[in-house]
Amino acid sequence: MATTTEGHGQEHGHKGSFWKSPRRVFGTINAQEIGLLYLVFATINLAIGGLFAILIRLELWNPGPDSIFEIFKIADTNSVASDYNTAFSLHGSGMIFLVIVQFGGAFANYLLPRMTASLNDDMYWPKWNNIAFWMLPMASFLFWGSGFNGSWTAYPPLSVTLSTTSTWILSLVIIGISGTISSLNYFMTIWKGRAPYLKWKDLDLFVWGTFLTSILLILSTPSIVIALILIVFDAEFGTNFYYNVDDKMLGSPVMYQHLFWFFAHPEVYVLVLPAFGLISHIISKFSRNKIFGYNGMVAAMIGLATLSFLVWAHHMYTTGIDPMVRIAFTTMTFVIAVPSGIKVFNWLTTLWGGKIKFEAPMLFTLSFIVLFTFGGITGVYINIVVLDLVLHDTYWVVSHFHFVVASGTLVAMFAAIYNWYPEMTGKMYNKAAAAIHFWAWSIGSLVAFTAFGVLGLESMPRRYFLYPNDPTLVLWHRIATVGAVLMGISFIAFIFAIFLGLKNPKLDNLDDPFGLGEEYGGYNYPKPFSEYVKEEHGEELHADHTPFMWAPLTGFALSLPFFGILAYVERSPFDDGLLKNLAGMLGLYVFLGLFLVFVVITFMKLSKLDIGKINPVDKYKTNRNYEIWAFLGSEVVFFGILIGVGLAMRWNSADGVWPNPDDALNVTLTAVNTFFLIISSFTMAKALESIKAGDQAGLKKFLLLTIGFGATFVGIQAYEYVELAKEGFSEHHPSFASAFYLQTGFHGAHVTIGVLLLIFVYLRARNGGYSKENHEYVEFIGLYWHFVDLVWILLFTIIYLI
Amino acid sequence: MLRKNLISLFSVLGLFLFFPELTNGQSNLTEPYDKLFTVVTIISIIVALLVIGLWVFFIYKFRESQEFERVQLSETSAKKLEITWTVVAVVICVALMAASLPVLINSVDNSETEIARITTGDGTEIIIEGSITWEWFAWQLNETSQREEIIASPQPDADPEQAAAGVKTTIINLKIDTNYKFIFFASSYLMHSFFVPELNFKMDVVPGVNNTLSFVILEPGDYQVYCAEFCGARHSMMRAVIHVEA
Q: Hey, are the CB atoms on B232 and A162 less than 8 Å from each other?
């Protein structure tokens, strides 16, 4: 069985001219090229985040306020404090959401199709891949421009009261949607898009890491999206999930922390698992040794992924939660320390009996092992509740997460960038600059983060822009600043290494640019699926990489509704009168209008696209229903959390506050409405039955009926909302109303989107897009519709009946 | 290059040993904490030295300029190795868990939000308020008038430079060897956290929740208090001092 070695990344078209063609840059659906786009995006955001870090450290050079930020007008007040708060809030959240996650996405895109010998030689959904990327630049403008100053954890009630919060949150919602789309793509590519001859045990550990990461993201993103959206609701629409002026019905700030950390703990494993995979790949390559204990490594990663959902409250030990709960989480957190430790030992043992070549990728990989271990050790301290009581919210925690992320995960990304640089560019990076990058980063980060640890032991609290004039504190802050400046210099060296490398001559030997030789010098990508199909069936499969310009347009357009909401909620620049609301309302209508126009044009265009054209790869796919099941998995978590929030509010409310549903709501009307929804499921099933029998007329008829019933449901729900508003529903029962609108509103939005999708399917059916043999999407929309229906039965029972 | 690696790494590790103790052991809550911290540190140093030691050794021994016969681990020894270090890792975690549990359990009593750190939860009640103005206030029930009265309010900080920047310090006077029960109260929508490093206290001040902390202070002194939950513009400037006379 022939294998291709690393170095054949140039095969797909004119790699050199990718950047020169704007059409390809925007419209590419080739995962390898999209990977490069992610790399550039993440690097730019790394520079911005790093700049904020330098500003923070300069501010802390002296114990008193230094007005570093006067130079940069960042937030909307003059106070140093506010600008400083913006600096660390954007630094932290930017590094996580716009840098590390996106570096992981870069390599996922660049490597997965070849490492999984994917059926279509690309991601499972190439066009959605492009859409997911092009949503990000718009989001990042909103993000950095928000000037958010509420800390990356955005705890309410403070965040509810800040004017910068809504913009920041809306940008994160866009980023979250992009991340979910990408995660579904990686998940399906690895699971169902893989060549049949590639077994789980043959997959590179990076594939395993990305697979588990995608599952974590799919299941945890709903939690943070809800947590953040509830802040926006509290801030803009007067709900009281977290905060209410009326003392009697105080929302629960701690509920936010549970929702936030339920996402944010798995998130840190999202950050690190792909990095683990890359480290395993590179350490094995440069020590010319198979990775030690493949099965143990896989088991450790699966363990980490599973356990990551069970440890979230270790971020909440000082909130006053039940001591027994704290003991439980301490235990689980100790359990999760074990797999990480095992991985470190496996990496070390990979070096045994090896023949190590010290190139930049290997240098970074080696420093990862030690510095990540330091980070892990600092984490053990804060897991122990009694120690956490002193160390929580001090620089000790800052030291911990900087060691694991900035000296850990980010370093793994640097290693990977250098490792695949020859393949991506055909040239070698500038080795002198790379060496400076390595030494300056290793020393700088070790110094800076150790200084953080010392400051933590000196009880220096986090998020302080001024501190007591104590010589020890001043000394270690200054040491940390020196380390940080060294890291800044290192980053500049990194840029030089990349760009000076482009001036190097083209490499002769792309198969082995690092000169590792025959002795296990390279990773062998599995045989491409198209090659296998040619050999076995004589069929020629060509991946269609024609740029699809509608995809980036969709990416941009998906941020339009968010701009509209933003225009509506942002504090109007006008003080009073008609103009006060006009700017906001105008903005809302304009953006929503543009979005609607886009949706209509998209419907008309796509409903005619590729009618009757069969994708030749489709016949090799097994059980395509998993495409919709994977998405529904995240929806299950989403609605589960919404229901959970409602129940938590109900159980925590004081006696007499939560009304009897019968008194507050029109149960009969909604029961009738439920009946319509149930009938619509029946007509949907009939629609699918029709097309399975080849009955085009039946398909269209039943689709129309389903649309009708669905629209009726939404209409009656809208009527219900209007009636409730007239009665002063939210004034009489603030908590109940908050929970009510949250659950039924999101459900109604799902029904509305379902109706829109059904209209699209109907239009496509009218154009002859479905047949007896080819009707997957009718089945998918049917499954989505039944799911939404089932959720409603659950919601109706919980909210209206009991 | 390797020697430089070694020296720099060991010197940094050495720094960990020269850190001041976590606390000075001032209240009856700190002795077990100090012991636990020491235990964790010893285990951590052993693990760190092991990892660094192996790392340095393997890098040195298996670098490519060393021409030698490449040996591979046999399958049985590989299995043994993996089992051994899994067991060792689990044992270390169990040991840490065992070490930390008694201290935690002794600090648990039966009420929902209370965390009594000593055996009796009844002490002189003092309400600690974290306010919307980024200041700490202490209130106590006046026996005669049966009303809560402020017994400590914020003053400009003792350090003139900090005071000029706006730092406020509330001096709370407490008696030595006396049972106290702090009840934390957030007077509006800001969340704070009452952090006294030298006494190993940290408790969040959450709007709508009244966390409590019961304690006895055994030695006189001035114990610095910080706000340890980000609360916005003046988070850095809200301080207090617990002043205990002999």
A: yes
DSSP A420-464: HHHHHHSS---HHHHHHHHHHHHHHHHHHHHHHHHHHHTTPBTT-
* B52/A355 touch (CB, cutoff 8 Å), yes or no: no
Q: What pLDDT was estimated at residue B101?
A: 75
- Which residues in chain A are contacts of B59 at CB distance < 8 A? 351, 356, 366
β-pairing, B124-130 vs B179-186, is parallel
Residues of B in Cβ contact (< 8 Å) with A56: none
Residue A306 pLDDT more than 90? Answer: yes
Q: Is the ipTM of this complex over 0.85?
A: yes
Q: Which helix (H) or strand (E) holds A499?
A: helix A471-502
Peptide bond connecting A157 to the previous residue in cis, omega within 30 degrees of 0: yes
pTM over 0.80: yes
* Cβ A234 vs Cβ A160: under 8 Å: yes
Question: Residue A350 in contact with residue A291, Cβ under 8 Å?
Answer: yes
Tens-digit pLDDT profile for residues B89-123: 899 888 888 877 766 665 543 322 222 234 356 78
Partner-chain contact B15 A384, CB within 8 Å:
no
For B169, left (φ over 0), alpha (ψ -120 to 50), or beta? beta
Dist CA B13 CA B8 (whole Å): 9
Residue A2: per-residue pLDDT:
33
- Using CB atoms, pick whichever of B52, B206, B224 lies closest to residue A370: B52
Could you tell me where the DSSP H helices lie in A287-359?
Answer: 294-307, 323-351
Q: What is the pLDDT of residues A649-684, one digit of tens each?
A: 888 877 777 888 888 898 999 999 999 999 999 999
Structure-block tokens of residue A608: 């005619």
Question: CA-CA-CA-CA torsion for A323, A327, A330, A332, nearest 10 degrees?
Answer: -130
8 Å CB contact of B15 and A454: yes
Interatomic CA distance for residues B134 and B231, integer angstroms: 8
